[in-house]
What we know:
Keywords: Membrane, Transmembrane, Transmembrane helix. It is a single chain. The protein is α+β, with helices and mostly antiparallel strands. It folds into four domains: 2-287, no CATH class; 305-509, Sandwich (Immunoglobulin-like), CATH 2.60.40; 515-541 and 551-581, no CATH class; 593-693, no CATH class. The protein has helices at residues 2-17, 19-40, 50-83, 85-91, 96-129, 136-164, 170-186, 223-247, 255-296, 528-549, 581-584, 594-606, 618-627, 636-646, 653-669, 678-693; strands at residues 311-312, 317-327, 333-344, 349-356, 361-368, 372-377, 380-390, 394-404, 407-409, 414-419, 424-426, 435-436, 444-446, 454-456, 462-463, 468-474, 481-483, 495-500, 506-509, 512-516, 519-523, 554-555, 558-559, 577-578. Strand 6 (372-377) and strand 7 form a beta hairpin. The radius of gyration is 32 Å and the shape is globular.
Amino acid sequence: MRRIRDICKVEWKYLGRSRMWSLLPLLHLFYWIWLIVRYETDSNGGNGMRMEYFYGNFLTIMPVAMLLCGLLANFIVQRDRRSGMERLILAWPVGKTEWLAGKWLAAQSYGLAFTVPVVLVQGIWLAAFGSHEERLLDYLFYTVCQMGAALCFFISLGLLIGVIVRNRFAFLLLPLLWWVLFTLQNDAQGTGNINVLWRWLAPYDLTRFRYNIVRDSRGLWDIPWTGLHQGVVATASLLIAVAACLVSYTHRNEKRESRILLAICAALLLPVLVGGWISYSEFSDRVDRFRHDGAIYAVDNRNEQYQQGYGKVVSDFRMQETMLSLRFPGENRLAAEAELLLVQSEKEQSSLLELTLNRRFQMESLTSELPMKWEHKGDLLTIRLSEPLRRNSTLRLSLAYEGSVDSYRQQGLNRYSSVTSSSIVLPKALAWYPQLGSRMLAKSFEHNGVALGFTMADEYSYMEPGATHYVVKLEEKRDGSVLLPIPASGKSDAVYAGSSSSGLFIYEGIMEERHMGSIRIVNHPDLMDESVRGVEKQLRQIEFLNRWFGMKLKPAELYSGILLFSPDAYYQDDEYPVRSPWHILRLPEVKSSSLKILLEWIYEHQFPLPGRAPLPDFRSHYELLNSSGADKELTADQLLFVEEVEKLDHSDWDELAALGGKLYKAYIESGKSESFDPLAALRQLSLQKGSDAE
């Protein structure tokens, strides 16, 4: 061990004399400090969560550090060969294993000069701002596993290549291998033609995200599995280093030394194979689950993937009340008891009730005060009453069911729903509670740009036929904050009660809640200020649209970026609470969309789009939107409409907005007819304005 240590010290002296190798870790550290300062000084808050920002840059910088450390290991072996030191080694009383082990240890300590500062910077950053203190140790462990094992692996690989390849081609071979590994990471962002299972071979865990480690699934997940994967990588790096010792200077091999090295290789190979098989099987099971769901929810009509809006629930009944008692008996397991109160509201008589409940739940019981027969086939729970119910009659049902809830998207790389000891992700579209009508829980489409041949929509939702009163009780106390679209009951933090016109979802994670009047704003602490600004802007938009078009838009009671898991209350109806009000309006597309383009131009002057200043004259705006990327001349009717608008006084935007509102109301009064002529209506309003002025 003393000789290994002495050789390591010598290598560090060589590194200290090289300005390039000495400066690289310092530049790496300063770059991270600059990134953090840049984030904290950004007043717009456009960089997302701190950890989303951190790991987004981490995925770019870590592979570069990995390549540099591998090249260093290659360099310190090749240097002896080029300088003639290799011949002197043969005469020294130093074993070849000791010689290479000292070099390997020096290269590994150089890798620590990259890893340790990153972990320290990350820990100090999180501790200073306190937005992730609940998972600080998880994040630090994850960073150590990912970067430490990856650098260790590539250092060993560089050492082996330096021993085997005895010329400068070694410096080309290592970057080529690095490029193959780096392609596995970036393939998901390109065409995706490489089988997703190949991502498991990368020296850092690429199997739990597609684009960004944190953003894709709202945080790190299954960290122990990442630890296992990286443990296999670290053990494999030791195996490669021992193999390098075994194949180097074979003419100096001693039987005893060779046997010891072979025994170490065999001892290391066993955990690599066993751990690798367990890790690969877990990833393969996720991909198989994704394949299975894709086959179930396949859609033949390709045009359906471009359809926007929400599905319509068809049922003779309306859900009046839903009471849920939830237990989580194990990881990704949900056991529930449900009490439903339904009203038959559509027909004079009806005996058929259809509910949607995920096929992965096993029904334990279903009872009612009325005689009935039921069947749970696929996602459809069909109930047939022995005698039909009359209009406005009620039906009470009691259900008990249990099953698994984990599901995945993006070729199995992203978590869509799950339950763990520290997090809950249960979107409405999973149908983890009985939902009215027959519903399709997801959609998968053929896609020739991905290896598995299809892709799945992240979510698919339905417009509920009306508001339902929900009572949700969590039987087990949760450590983290839990979010539902209904507020917590004052009696207990584990009971949530309230009415919702958009169904239920449950999310547990790091979040903060603020109140703006009756509005709840819930989001990650890093995103809260941005969310508050967004809500303030949307309230101004709602007020403007109500005044402009005479609408009755109401702000939603809950605003949260977490709603991306389960979209709700984006309904295109002014009787529902809304978010992003302008984007849900169905603006009239009549006479080559002239009225729509005019309204958009007026609206952009009231609420400019980020990063784009509104065009001052209507003609330029019309030509920009009408061209759609191609050089298209305006038609005669369009030119007449543009000329009529340009006759108006553009210095008085309030007057222009009022005129646009009158045009929109005239379109509504015409019955939203496609034959509505905005040019004729505009001329009539201009004449009326002129006569009023006289």
